[in-house]
Each structure stands twice: as C-alpha cells, then as structure tokens.
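Data card: per-record layout.
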Amino acid sequence: MSATAESAPGPRDTLRHVLLHLVTPLLMCLGMGLAYMGAFVTPEPNHLPVAVVGSGPAADSVAQGVRAAAGDALDVRSLPDRGEAVDALRSLDIAGAYIPDAKAPELVVASAGSDMSAMAVQKIFTPLAAEQGAPLKVTDVAKPVADDPTGQGLFFLLVAVSIGSYASVAVLGAAGAGLRMRARAGLVVGVSFAVSLIGAALAGPIFHLAHHGLWGVWAMAWLYSAGVLFIGVGLHTFLKRWTTLTMMVLFVMLNFTTSGGLFRPELQSGFFGSLHSFWNGAGFVEGIRAHLYFGGHDLPAHVGTLIAWLAIGLLAVAVAALWERRRPVAPATEPAEEEEVEESVAV
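The structure for this 347-residue chain is written out next.
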C-alpha cells in the first residue's frame, strides 16, 4: 500500500504534466491565427496579372493609365485581340482582360480559376468603364459547375482529405508503434486509399463538384493523402507527441493558406504566394482545377508536385525504418501517445 502511494505522482508532477500538454493547443491557437488571418483577412492584389486588349494609341493609353494608377498591385500587359486574351485566361496566365470600347467596354474573366480574382478584377475595371460613361459587360469564359458556383468546393475537398490524412497519422504512429515500419507503411497505403475514395465520393456523387474526370480526382486525392500519411508516419518516429503540431503546421497552417482554393497567390503576400508554387495542397487544388476546367493545362506539373511530396514521405519512412532497427521495439501504446491520438483526432 505504501509502495503504491510512493509511486503515485504528486500534485506538482500532475500540474507539470498538464501544463506540458497545454503547450500544443496553445501553439496551435497562435499558429492558426497567424496563418489564417495573415493569409485571408486582408487580401490585396500583388502583381495580379491582367491584360488590356487592343492595338493603337487608344488601347496603349488605357494600359499605361492602369499601370500608373495600380503600381505593384497589377501586372498589366497588352494583348492584340480578344482571342489571345481568352487563350491567356484559359491557361491561367491572366486573371482578367479589359477590352476598351467607347460604347460597350467588356471585361473577360475565368471565374473557375478563382472567383475572388475575377471579383477583384471586376472591381478594378468597373470604375474605368464608368469614366467612359458606359456599363461594363462581364463575360466569363470558364465558369465552375452550377453545383459549385464560387469554385471554392475544391478548397473544402482539400480540407476533408487533409483531415482524414493527418488525423490518421497519430493512430498509425502511436497506436501502431509496436508494429514494424513495413506493416505501418502497408496501413498507410490502405488508409490513403480509403481517404481518397471518400474524397472522390464527396467530389462526385455527393456534392457533384466533378461532373467528369472523377477517376483523375481520385488519383490526385490518393497521391496527396499518401504523401501526407507517409511524411507523418516517418516523422512520428523522431517527433513522437510533437508530430501532431508539426502536421498541423505543414498541412493546415501553411497548406490551406497557400493552396489557392480561396485566394490565388496574386491576392496574397509574397510569403504565401511563394509557397503556392511548390506546396502539396496547391498541387492538389490546382491539379484538380486544371483537370476539371482548363483542359489539363499544367496538369503534369501539379501531379509532379504531389509525386515529389510522396517521394519525400517514402524517404522519411525509409529513414525512420533504419533508425528503428537500431533501437528497441516500442510498446504497442504508451500513455502519452494515447493522449496524442485523442488530441489529434479531436483537432
């Protein structure tokens, strides 16, 4: 009886244990606030690419006037005709094309690329048309499907697939700690397959985001999910209970904010815009967007991004496997790691 009393943790030990575990949610609170508010609260054009269509002194004058007024907010180029402007929109090279006309000025956009960018461009050029005393005609050459009128459904699909992936990392890493890495890697393949099927079901028969090309959506969902899971399981060997916070930083704070699902990089600061060029969430969203709406333009590059992240995950698992071979096998589930599983799933 006395031995049990002596081994029981005292109030100070319990308090220290609680305070240590509170560090993770407090850091999550700070990180989520900094990331989301920094990326989404004050979107402003930052070298947003637009075009003024036409040749001759009148079109040149409009283009020069827009450049002078916008400064670094816009990247203004001149295109000779409407056909080239439409091609540039469908290849996502520009966010909008303004066609000046004394009687019927027109703005051409592709809202499937970014509804927010299309709205920003419209806000910029509507006053310019008003100065000419004519209403602005807006033509959308790439609309999202009617079931996803804002085109933001792909962002929420990314959220769903991400949560299914990173929340499973704690289970595979902690509850499966007693398994050989080969077994955990096999479970990663199975879990990522299940997550990707859920993602495809959400995008297809449930919410009808994808009216065609559902197999391509599923394939990209699997590549994305497998990459997240392999990276997380590999990192868990070294980070243990700090894996949850690390996964939140990598695949929520930095991932959702740079994916382009709500704001494309031209409406964000340079930091978030630069991450968009190689982060896996951006590869997922932009890849599906290209696949569904833009004839596969730049699709190989986006798929290549997902494959690169998957390769990083496979490398992380390989390094972790070599590390574990030199150390004793961990028990199946440790108390601290059980708390980590509950904490991660709750998030």
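Known properties of this structure: The radius of gyration is 25 Å. The CA atoms of residues 106 and 137 lie 5 Å apart.

See the next section for split statistics.
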